[in-house]
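It is worth pausing here to work through a concrete case rather than discussing structure prediction in the abstract. The textbook approach is simple: state the sequence, then state the predicted structure, then interpret. We follow exactly that order.
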Amino acid sequence: MRIFADLWWFFKQEKWKYLFGIVFLMLSSFINLIPPYVVGIIVDDIRNQALNPVLLAKWILFLIVIGIIYYWTGYLWRQLIFGSSILLARQLRNDLFRHFTKLSPDFYQKRRIGDLMAHSTNDINAVQNAAGEGILTLVDSMTMGGMVIITMSVLINWKLTLIALLPMPVMAGLTMYYGSLLHRRFGKAQAAFSDLNDKVQENISGVRVIKAFGEEEAQINTFREASGDVVNKNMAVAKVEALFDPTITFIVAFCFFLALIFGAKYVVEGSLTIGRLTSFTL
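Step two, the predicted structure:
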């Protein structure tokens, strides 16, 4: 959460874009709950033989309208939130470059060019992701997650909701562990990228000396090792990132399994309709 505190100055600067972006995101999350509820009603009408062509046409027209609204709300929040994050990256690059031009030569004698290049490229991209994907994840997890849980509990069956959510703390714990591991490995990858940039700068600056002493092959081998280290460090990051989706997919699938097993039990007992179980699983 510290990154959001550090970026608070930008959120205040672009407050209206983020405010309307969050509003449209919340509206999009709410609209996303409507089709499953409608499908559940249609399934129950089919079960009770109460569905006729006119009623079905009305429901289909309603879903089409909902789909169009969902499309435009999704388009608007992406434009506002992701567009703002792109503006942040541009502003940070301009400010950083302007700051670099004001620093003394002594500063560049004490600092490695590779570190400065890493700050100017990958670090700014990471901050941009925090201001875009980070805001999306934070707001969407609270609004969409909260709305889904309330809807499932109040409108369908609170017992089934509780059962289906039992594996979720495991997913939260694993993703937090993956996040801390990813943070450490990303730092090492950035350091390796900095070393590589620094090596390139040194070789280009001293290319005449390298040629004069016949050190071309030695420097090529050194560069190859540094490049391989960057690849290995980034592969380590990618391996952690690759754990997120399978873990989430497996646990959500297990939630589906619990919902279907116990939901079928409630349907047989008569405390839940097939339509509501359909809405629940959707």
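Step three, interpretation. The chain has a mean pLDDT of 88. The CA atoms of residues 30 and 147 lie 7 Å apart.
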